[in-house]
Input
Amino acid sequence: ELGWMGMPVPEELGGAGLDTLSYAIAIEELARVDSSVAITVAAHTSLGTMPIVMFGDAAQKERWVPELASGRRLGAFGLTEPDAGSDAGATRTSATAQPDGGWIVNGSKMFITNAGTDITGCCTITALTAPGEVTNFVVPADAPGYVAGPPMRKIGWKASDTRPLNFDDLRLAPDALLGTRGEGFRQFLKVLDGGRISVGAMGLGLAQGAFEMALHHAKQRRQFGKALVGFQSVQFTLADMATEIAQ
Output
C-alpha cells in the first residue's frame, strides 16, 4: 500500500519514482526488523524489476513493470548456477535460437530468491546463446518448462523464498530477449551494482536492529543485583557496536 515494491521505478511505469537514497533507507529500516522481508523486497526490486526497467523495450516494460512495481507480482533474478556459482562468465544454461525467432532454454539455477511463490511473475536469467556469448531473457514463471524446486532449508531468513530452478526445454517467444543479444554479461554487472547498494543497506539495518535488541536486553537483564548495562565490559561492547554502526 505504501508503494515500497517499486520505489526506484519511474512513476510512468507504476512505481514510486524515489531516488536511490530513499530506497536504501527503506531497505535498511525493513532489515532492522526482519531480514526476510528486506531481501524479498530488495531482490524483487534491484534484481527482478530493474533489469526490465533498464534494458527492456517498451512492450516488455508495459507487460511486466506495473505489475511488479505494485507488488501484485514478484520478480526474481537467475544468475547463480550449481557449478558456476555467481560467475556469470561461467554460465552453462543455454538458449538455442529457433527458426521462428524464439528460444529453447535448458539448464539450472541455484539459490534463486522469489522464484517459486504464488505471486512470482517472472525471472530474469542469463543464458549462453553461443560459445562465450551471454544473453539475458525474461522468463514467465508460468511458462512450461519453468520448474521451481522445493524451498531450501535455511538457518535464517526463513520467510524468504529461496529455491533451485530448472529449465527443461523451456520455450520462449522472441519477445523474451532482454536487451541486445550478447550483452547479458555487461547488463548484469550494471544490475549487480544497484543490488549491492540494497544489500549494504540490509547489513546496516540488521546491525542497527541487533544493537537495539542487545541494548534492551542489557537494560532488562539483572545480574549480581544490577542491570547488565551497569557493567563496564558490557558498556564497552555496546559502545563498540554503536561506533561500528555509525561509521
Summary: Residues 184-220 form the longest helix (37 residues). The helical segments are 20-31, 35-55, 58-70, 184-220, 232-246. The radius of gyration is 21 Å.
